[in-house]
Each structure stands twice: as structure tokens, then as C-alpha cells.
Fold this protein.
Amino acid sequence: MRFSVISSALVAVLVGFGGTLALVVAAAQAAGADTVQTASWVTGLCLAMAGSSAYLSIRHRIPVVTAWSTPGAALIAASAAPMGMEAAVGAFIFAAALILLTAAFRPISTLIERIPVSVAAAMLAGVLLRFVLAVFETAGASPWLVLPLVALFLVLRLASPPFAVLAVLAAGVLLAGAQGLLGEVALEGSLTTLMLIVPRFELSVLIGLGLPLYIVTMASQNLPGFAVLRAAGYPVPSRSILSVTGLASLLTAPLGAHTSNLAAITASLCTGPDAHPDKDKRWLTGPVYAGGYLVLALFGASLVGLFAALPQALVITIAGLALTGPLVGALGAALTVEADRFAAVLTLAVTASGLSLFGIGSAFWGLLAGLAALGLDRGWRRWGATRKAR
């Protein structure tokens, strides 16, 4: 066990957890979770990361590390109104079941892979855009807290975007404390908190949240995660990965946790030569990574209590800045194909608008609008090509 294995795995844990925990807390608040339910949500996610990463890495002897769905958390946090944790858990179970079906039936994964990248990326961009815009909307009310953090992020991201987010978090806590904006830390000193939540299955929430949660998790997390493993020269046991992460999501959903999936960005920290010069030994990062999340699971309540003490402006700023990189990537992917740009922009506009019809959120309507526009565009071009051929 080389030190580089331990350091790479723990850095991946620190970046993955610290960089997006604020977004998970925001998602829990949007779903109507109280402090105990939020702590259970975070603890459930950490347990899912620990169990799935350890099993997959040891089973396949490759560095498979998992993460929670960051786009999924953004999707939940962007919900127009609290749906209630019972209905949210029902949607989480539905998304987990769809992932398990994808693992069991190859045609379903093929269908997901056939969703045009431009439309899927535009839907994700529409969700993320609202968080990035919120940073600058918040700056108007709290300029002395938000603007220095934005400036710090702009400088530090030149060296390392993931660590820039962690630096903003640390600096933000110090700055908020200096300005007297920190509240009392709830659940101070307490260990893990778990709460079973009885699910409620509401059709509008299943379609408006559960289905988009499944799509963004597959398109924006699992598929890029497969690509990271392939780029590092590893075989990709996709059915095994989807089965294990789907099962982990299903088991932890009653604890309030949303979807687990294959890591993409943090996975690159564990699959490269910096982790271990011997490609066949890098799988050892998986158990170390799992151990890091197991430790975090023990302190889920205290970590949530810490974030509950932060001013809302700081939480919004951390979440928004953490999502600027994914937003840039999503916009780039959405607009790459010139012929698909109208459909992509329409998807982005509908999703970012927050439109809600029949109790179904904007992410679903954005995806539907984009696919409809793309279908009409391609049909029109085929018809024109057929006329010219005659």
C-alpha cells in the first residue's frame, strides 16, 4: 500500500464530499427535509459510497469509485416547491428501480444512450444555470460576503477548480464568522443520525422528479464515468456497476438519500498514474476511498449541523460556484452540433424557466420540448433531402 494510493483516495473523498455537500443540503431543504432527515440523507449517501466502492473495486480489481448524483441534487434543489420527503423518497426509489432495470435489460440502456447528447446536456445546463445565477442574485443582498468569495474562486480555479471550491468553503466560514453571520451549530458533537421515511408514490413527482433524476444520473454521471475508466485502460463492467449502484440507491432511499452512481471527475484522481504507477494496483484506492466515506458517515449529523449554521447566502455561493465547471461542460456539449442548437437552446430555456404543469417540473418539460423540436428538425431535413433526390 503506497502512500500515493491513500492520498489520492482521500483527496477524492475530500473533493467529492466537501465540494458538493452544500448542494445536497440545498436539495434536502427544497424537498422539505428537517435537520434530522437531512442528516439521515447525508449519512445514507456516505454509506452507499462506502459499500459500493469497496465491493466493486475488490470484486473487479479495478479502481471503481462511486459518488452521489450531483446533477440529481441540483435537480431536486431546483424544485419549485417542497414536495415532502415522503414523495421525494418515492421518486428516489423509482429512479433506483429504473437503474436496476437498465442493468437487467440492455435495450433500456441502449435507449438512454440514444438520447441526443445535445438535448440531455441542455437539460442539465438548464438545471445548473439557476444555481449559478443565484450566486450573483445573492451578491446584491450580501456583497461583502459573496463578492470576495467569487474573486477568490476566479483566481484559485486557474490552479485547481476542485480545490478552489474547498478554499471558498473554508474562506467563507471565516468571513461569515468575522461578519457575525454564523448561527448556532445544530446537533453539535452528535454522531450519525438515521431515519426511516415511508415513501409516498405520487405520479406527478415520479414523472417530474424521478424520471429526470434517472436520466441526468445516467447521462451526466454514469456514462462519463464509464468513459473515465475506458480512458484509463480498464475494462468497464457496466452491468455490475449499474446493478450495485442501483441496489445501493434502492437500499438508502428510505433513509432519504437520492441516487448513487459511478464517479466521473473524482474518479480521475484514483485511476491515473499519480495514484499508483502500476495500473493493476490502483484498485486499492477503492477500499481506502470507501473507508473515508465510512468515517464521514459516522459524523453525518454534525456535518449537516455545521452547514445549518452557515448563512444562506454562503450556501448558495458555494453551491453555485461548485457548479460553474459542470455548467460550462454542459453548455459546450449542448451546443457542439450546429444542427441541434435550436433544440438544445429550447431545452435549456424551458428547463431554466422553472415551468411546472400538472405538478410536473421543468426538467421533464425541457427534455420533452427539446426532443420534439429535434424530431421536427430532423424530419424536415430528411423530407427536404428526399425531395431533392427525386
